[in-house]
Amino acid sequence: MLKLWRWYRNCLAVHPVKTQMISSGFLWGLGDIGAQTVTHSTLRKQHQLTVISDQENPPQQEDKELKINWKRVAITSTFGFAYDGPVGHYWYEYLDYYIRVRLQLQPKSFKFVTAKVAADGLLCGPLDLLIFFSYMGFASGKSMDQVKEDVKKDFLPALLVEAGVWPFVQVANFRFVPVRYQLLYVNFFCLLDSTFLSWIEQQADAPWKKWFAPIVTLEDQKGQA
User: Fold this and answer.
1) What is the rounded (10 degree) CA torsion for 16, 19, 20, 23?
2) At 152, phi and psi to the nearest 5?
3) How confident is the model at residue 174 (pLDDT cuts 50, 70, 90)?
4) Are 61 and 90 in contact (CB under 8 A)?
5) Which keywords does UniProt give here (predicted)?
6) Biggest alpha carbon–alpha carbon distance for the chain
7) Closest-CA residue to 139 (of 149, 148, 147)
8) Radius of gyration of the chain (CA)
């Protein structure tokens, strides 16, 4: 394990952007496999409950074994490789430079960490979600109108959930982790995050998404006013 860490540090020192791209692509792809596994498990449990509750007229469809959609894994992995890796690398480098040099805040101080968390949550977070859901829609062959509808359904639930989690992750990141390792730190959490985002994107018209429909409708009415 120590040798692997040394090898990674050496790769990061010699080829920082390429290393971040490859590691991000790998973790995002792994996250999508996790999302497909969770989705399959959820549907299987729902099917079993339906069979138990309706024994007189059980569903004809039998449980199916999990078959990974490798095309979808490749699409998600490409997002991590082509977007999250390079953009994340330069984002953390520039964010640290701007707050430390331009704003002249003391590194690891309360104001320094707070400013970073606020900038990351208000700027980078929402933009990443918007790009992710748009990219996944277009890469899956959907039309512009379909992508817009999917973004309306998926963006707000994902944003609200991540707003309650990522600030705590980033406080530890910006307080204790050196800048060159911050994307790696985030990528480990992105393994769970990409699973969550991919799972949301796969839910289509899940009933729980209707909870957010009044908010989306209200925003649309304000935009038309």
Assistant:
1) -160
2) -60, -40
3) very high
4) no
5) Membrane, Transmembrane, Transmembrane helix
6) 71
7) 147
8) 20
